[in-house]
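FIELD: query
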Amino acid sequence: MGRILLVSIVVLSLAGCGSKGGKSALSGKVTYKGQPVNGASLFLIPMSGEGKDAVIPVTQEGTFNVSGIPQGEYKVVVKPAETSSGLPTMAELKNMPADKRAKAEESLKKMQEEQQQTKPTIPFPDKYKTHMSSDLKLTVGKAAPPQQDLELKD
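FIELD: result
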């Protein structure tokens, strides 16, 4: 639960995600061959090309839960937790306003520590690890369900 709160703070702090419309909550479960995919992060890339990517960690049970995601359609990339690309660097955080920076830095450090302790228990296909080959998509918004499960396939 603490991890979800930390991630929510980081996502909200970093997400000026610029999509038009409101923001929504999103939750679900990521599975591959019926088993939970854990030790991973979801990277939501706006299909409109506007705004910033959102990073959502996946729990040991393969679940994710976050609020404050701008409404819109997203391509989804799933990366193992030890893959840090896509996470903001400390240098990027230093460019944030001082009032948000301290909380975001602390949250990022905690999230990185947790990711190092969370190793994936099952491998999943490489095609989901890059935006060029991933076929996963999510829609966030009023008409979309807040619970959206993702099933990875060969």
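FIELD: remark
The chain has three helices and eight strands.
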